[in-house]
Give the backbone structure.
Amino acid sequence: MAQIHPKTTPIYQTSVFTFEDLNDLELYFDQPDHKYMYTRYGNPNSDELADEVNSLEGGAGAVATSSGMSAILTAVLTYCQSGDHLLCAEEIYGGSAALLSQELTRMGVAVSYVPGEKLYSLAEYVQPNTKLLLAETMSNPLLQVVDLQRLASETKRAGIKLLIDNTFATPVITKPLHLGVDMVIHSVTKYLSGHSDVTAGAVVAAKAEDIERSKQIMRVYGLNLSPFESWLAARGLKTLNVRMKQHCFNALAVAEYLYSHPKVEQVWYPGLAQHPQHKLAKGQGSGMFGGMLSFRIEDDLDTVNTFMRALKHIPFAPSLAGVSSSISHPLRTSHRSLSAEQQQKLGITLGVIRLSVGIEETVDLLADLAQALDKV
Ligand SMILES: Cc1ncc(COP(=O)(O)O)c(C=O)c1O
């Protein structure tokens, strides 16, 4: 066969790698980073993705996982075992809350939720067995922005690890590990892959020993990412920078438009001067505020359905961060598993629409929203 020097990494669509003999096998065990044995333990495509995410986040190492959920599970199990307790910011993706409250509690890991205003003084929440705090750089769905540097000094003072879900912000906007955070997780399904065609996750650690433990968990629990999904995600990642610029540009224009619209009761976007953490978001995000926003129209089922049906180019799709815009409905999708009381407390009502602003022409987006709002 002729010599092959591909410009891009081929897809190593194999579940296993071959060895010449037992000496060759021993080389793998001596230096596992120089050889591959079995795709669940490691594959060139998932390693390529992990390396790219690691260098974007500025970590000591990373591991790719089968989803954002398995990234959170890996991260939590890196630090916690049965009998431990963890803290979680009250406003968080509903799936993360379900994992902690409904599943990890069954394995003997207790969880307490900390309201946003209490995050920087944790004394009343920390117990002798508390191991970590989980929060999001920008919360899902109402875009509350956490002061990561301040939070990291508080968790250090409390003697616990800080685990940050950086899915909404991406490392283009904020690099939590540079601000003192111990571990970052991503739903790579979202901006990092960016084209709504991959389900994937990543864990990045500030310390090499932590990521070694995460890798061990990924392998033993079988939370690895397949070669093809890794390849797709690594491909998407190459355009993250340019995509984020356009997501942010469009989102600010849309947020300003919705803010001034008489049928819109409230808009949550960190780029608006009226947002409670606008100044913090500006500093922490180097002037970029992300592509996600939420807004409230009338808390009425017919109004919401009419609006959804009237949109011509922005589908209702319960995910986010693709190149084309989409809307979602937190009450009925991502935050469905919360109790009615929790939903009410967080302000997630029937009229709240979450908008994932894509990279389309700004005027086209504004026109679609305008004609749909006209109909409600
Ligand atoms: C902020 C955040 N973290 C984690 C997840 C879970 O990611 P995945 O769906 O890739 O498992 C999601 C999913 O929507 C999310 O929005």
